[in-house]
DNA sequence: TATGAGACTTGATCAGCATCAATTTCTATA
DNA sequence: TATAGAAATTGATGCTGATCAAGTCTCATA
């Protein structure tokens, strides 16, 4: 693991929703206690089974969070971008990680220790509220994902995913897959072969149009959500 | 909705992990701000789409939390018992509920408003830590559930579920299904017919033995987790 | 710009499980 | 304890999507 301590934690603190509502002075105070670290593409930030004393916040780059099922199959849980954090389970519950966290590209993160965070929470209850908000939303997303797995067909999951990718303002009907079809398949709980076939089907039904390998135009949002 | 305000909130506050680490005086203080309410069997405590200002803590009884998928199918998310709480998404994020919460039997709950809770969090940061712990664990459970849906067969999910039911001390190898096969099917993302058939298969493989309708003896824990 | 490795596509096959339908068993309550 | 309504079982059938295999395409790098 390559660690470089430098002075640009500023981004981290300023970036994250859990801190960026604070005043300048307060953010400066937080910067005192965060540690900056970088990881090379492919490096693991943590592994399932390890303990840890820190919350990890992505500053620059992307991190792939995945799980192994009891039977050893890999499932992509989510992809972190700048401002997202991970490691809360091991941190708050003082247990081991259940995930693997892997840098997808060269990535810089900030880390804050349990003790420091606890101090901040006591001093600034607003931070706790932000954390509670974020975690509640994550529960919601994860439950929604579970519900989709258990009640919807692969077509529908893929179609919902494409619609979710559209920018919420609806300004653009062009979406770009943020990951390979292999990772997408893992995220959607299917295989790369099936993703490829289903994308083709959706195109044949004139619901989407492929613009390039990873770029698609959404032609008919309503019917995408109404498959079957 | 039948609401009875009475004086026995005591149980609620004493019961929940998020409060029961406090001193007697502190718990008394909290009792001042919680409201007790009862729901009859079958009553909805809240619906998806509603807003709400309260966190709901189960005092006595059971509450079924379920979701509807985009296409309208019902999925059981979890079942609350005494000490469990719900409503955090709508409360913390000031959005609408994404769930339905239904009393499975006559149930009494305590509710605490956003404003009161916020006050408590500021005064007692330890409560925030407990909430963060609980929510982190829930994320973990939900992600694990999603992973099981996406990577494991119905047999395996059912078998894992039975093993999870065993008391963690491993003192007893007899488990009792806490819900109907219909609800279990919904929880596991399958159909009642399939649950029935798979239970029969597991019994024919001598991995479990049915003692009564809802009671099973686990004969071979290791192989239950090693199906295939 | 050549080349190899990984990403994606396409085809053929087949197992798992949903669905529909018909009983049988359980259980709450009169 | 009788009985209706719900829950669970069992059977028959068909579809979805996994798997294996054999390509083709893309792109980073020498």
TrEMBL record, chains A, B:
PROSITE patterns: CNMP_BINDING_3, HTH_CRP_2. Transmembrane segments: none annotated. Keywords: DNA-binding, Transcription, Transcription regulation. Residues 18-138 form the Cyclic nucleotide-binding domain. It holds the Pfam family HTH_Crp_2. SUPFAM superfamilies: cAMP-binding domain-like (SSF51206), Winged helix' DNA-binding domain (SSF46785). PANTHER family: CRP FAMILY TRANSCRIPTIONAL REGULATORY PROTEIN, LISTERIOLYSIN REGULATORY PROTEIN. This is Crp/Fnr family transcriptional regulator. It comes from Alkalibacterium iburiense.
């Amino acid at each position: 693991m390559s660690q470089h301590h430098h002075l640009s934690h500023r981004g981290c603190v300023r970036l994250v929703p859990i801190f960026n509502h604070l005043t300048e002075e307060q953010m400066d105070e937080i910067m005192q206690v965060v540690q900056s670290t970088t990881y090379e593409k492919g490096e693991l930030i943590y592994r399932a089974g390890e303990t840890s004393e820190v919350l990890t916040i992505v500053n620059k780059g992307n991190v792939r969070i995945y799980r192994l099922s009891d039977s050893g199959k890999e499932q992509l849980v989510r992809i972190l971008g700048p401002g997202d954090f991970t490691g809360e389970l091991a941190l708050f519950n003082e247990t081991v990680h259940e995930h693997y966290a892997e840098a997808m590209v060269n990535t810089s993160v900030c880390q804050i220790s349990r003790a420091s965070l606890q101090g901040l929470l006591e001093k600034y209850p607003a931070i706790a509220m932000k954390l509670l908000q974020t975690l509640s939303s994550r529960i919601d997303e994860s439950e929604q994902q579970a519900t989709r797995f258990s009640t919807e067909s692969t077509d529908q999951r893929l179609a919902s995913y494409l619609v979710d990718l559209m920018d919420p303002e609806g300004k653009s009907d062009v979406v770009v897959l943020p990951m390979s079809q292999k990772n997408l398949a893992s995220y959607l709980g299917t295989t790369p072969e099936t993703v490829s076939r289903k994308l083709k089907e959706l195109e044949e039904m004139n619901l989407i149009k492929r613009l390039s390998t990873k770029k698609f135009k959404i032609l008919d949002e309503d019917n995408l959500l109404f498959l079957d």
